[in-house]
Amino acid sequence: MNLGKIYKNIFLVIFLGFVLSACATQTAQKIDSQIQGDVYTGTDTVEYLADGVPDRVFFATNESVLTTASRETLRKQASWLRKNSEITVVLEGHADERGTREYNLALGERRANAAKDYLMTYGISSSRISVISYGKERPVDSGSNPLAWSKNRRSVTVKAN
After folding, report:
1. Which is deepest, 11, 44, 111, 120, by most CB within 10 Å?
2. Which tens digits make up the pLDDT trace of 6-29?
């Protein structure tokens, strides 16, 4: 075999290794930039109840404790709901794909109730808020990785019909 071809093939393999390594690093950095701890902090899945009022809050794994960012979002929702007293909402609790159906339904309910309780501390009547849990049945991201899981651990506030 020609020695030049061997060196060329070795160089090509090393070069491709560097390229693939760079791609994997960029993907990991993108995921890390959207997760703080294990809580989603991005905005690509967030919709809005009204201008500047996000519709969802996110939770850590197996948690129903509101984060600082979640409390800020719920304060905005409460302010908007106080100005729009005719509107009622449904708080949908969700979980990621891990865990049993029963566990995730209970976790989703705890998450939605945590959001409800917080809204009530800002003067929103419990009669205007319903709670439902979908557990892991309605993922916003069907991936099976930390970023997808963090997007799916959420409570979403939707206008009731």
Report:
1. 111
2. 767 777 777 666 555 555 445 445
